Amino acid sequence: MNPIKERRIKQDWLFPLVNTIFLILLMFITLYPVINTVAYSFNDGIDALRGNIGLWPRKFSLESYKSILSDKSVFMAAWISASKTVLITLLNLFWTSMLAYALSRKEFVFRKLFTVIMVLTMYVNAGLIPNYLLISKTLNLRNTYLVYIIPSMFSCFNMIVIRTYISNLPDALIESARIDGAGDFRIFWQIIFPLCKPVLATVALFVAVGSWNSWFDTYLYNGQKKDLYSLQYILKMKLATTQQSANAAKTTAEAISTLGLTTPITIRCAITVIAAVPIIIVYPFLQKYFVTGIALGSVKE
Amino acid sequence: MDSIAIQKENNSGGPKKASFGKKLSRQWQLVLMSVPMICYVLLFNYGPMWGWITAFQDYKPKLGISGSKFVGWKNFIWLFKRADFLQSIRNTLGMSVINLVFGTVTAILLAILLNEVRHTGFKRFVQTITYLPHFLSMVIVVGMAQNVFASNGPINQMLLNLKLIKEPIFFLGEGSMFWWLVGVINVWKEVGWNTIIYIAAMTAIDPTLYEAAVIDGAGRFNRIRYVTLPGIKSTFVILLIMNIGRLMEAGFELQYLLSSPLTIDWAQTIDIFVLKYGISKQQYGVATAAGMFKSIVAIILLFGANTIAKKLDESTLI
Q1: Which domains does chain A have, with CATH numbers?
Q2: Does the pTM of the predicted model rise above 0.90?
Q3: Is B36 helix (H, G, I), strand (E, B) or coil?
Q4: CA within 20 to 30 Å of B39's CA: A27, A154, A171, B47, which one?
């Protein structure tokens, strides 16, 4: 460190101190609702109705988790959510990166035309109802598992991010492979795809999180099909019921009398924890990737 | 399709170029790689635009687009006579502006504070923690908000303990508070995430600029003011343009999940209006018209913002 910097650090200690305290406070505010939810999920159901639970359960109980684990519909929903997340991520990565490769080739005759077709979709959206009519009426995908997969197989924004990444790779790699007689399929699979690991990790994270977190597709297309509910949709329905019972019951006693041993609020919190855990585990490991991914996305066009 | 491509080739072409057909036959693998997803996008992104016709129809699902009666601008006129549609426009724009201002200011502020942290481990740790809410689904976030803002929840408790209020505030049931609640929740969820782009811009600032500023006797605040802020100006402008283009997207999930009959007058955005009339009430024509209105205004906003930015001689989007 040079002497100028040294002097600067010695000169002001107040700002770094205040800054550190502020950032710690910010982390506390960020984490408080999360820890609060975990505390609720481990609390006794009736006791939780009194509210006022902070960062630790007041009356510890595993009842909520027990009742969820005995509920087949939650298991089923977790399976639906997990399987669609994996399938969508794999398909999306494959199709998106393949098109990104083709559109990154400067010699490709349709490059400009196809790029325009793609970029325009990011600005013009037909809207909810026309999309709904296409998927439910024209393609007849309502009440099927495929409605989760097919409309989410490709994403234009991610394609552009990957294309930018490929464009920044040295051209010599591709040219030398071509001189050796490799076709585009081989170049893509054996050279480009492995080199794109960092950007593919970012895109995979975005796609997987988006799919895992979605409930609206279930609401729109599979609301009548109980065995196709996703975890988030079950959570959404619990949210509606706790809201209703909270509004309906004026007193705690009244709420207790209308509800069973484990009340929806603790159950809801327990499902919340189950739905959030996979994401909380995965995202810190991908942090170094997604930061570069976002920077790439921002320089699109 | 072909003629456009040929033209492009000719325009950019050098003295002796292989013919289009020859090129195409050599590039059959690239064509095979791109055509499936082009067809996919034509079907799923451009296909539904055909459905915009229903905005001018008295659309009946049984009759389909070809069989339904055309009614001209009737759906649009009907919309603009409805108080709740005008309300949804107001709510959409109101919440968008709050989100835009809150979101931008807090992100820049936090990015500056993080940029001043010397200890990289601590900085990384704060970033990891503040990114977390971005990855949580809106359903989860609204559930947490219900706990935190409940009348017997921690915020009310804190305000009561500090003797700032005598009665608990019913945050979730007050229409007048809804916009601000949405603003606060959005900041909580996205502030860390939104700093990424600003921090990336700050790392790109030439360190010698800071050293020069120190030699010139600039203190910390002057360095932030004269080096850091100018360094992120172009990023700020680009994001501002993008966000102005998204003003019609106030968000849908948060408002939909957080609202109740008590707050719906302030919570209903255009998207929720479309959902209510299109899916629940099956008035497809009206709902499509509302969605189409939204899309067109969004495009106008985007190009308008872009033109202004071009005039200002800043970096532009498209």
Answers
A1: 62-301 (1.10.3720.10)
A2: no
A3: helix
A4: A171
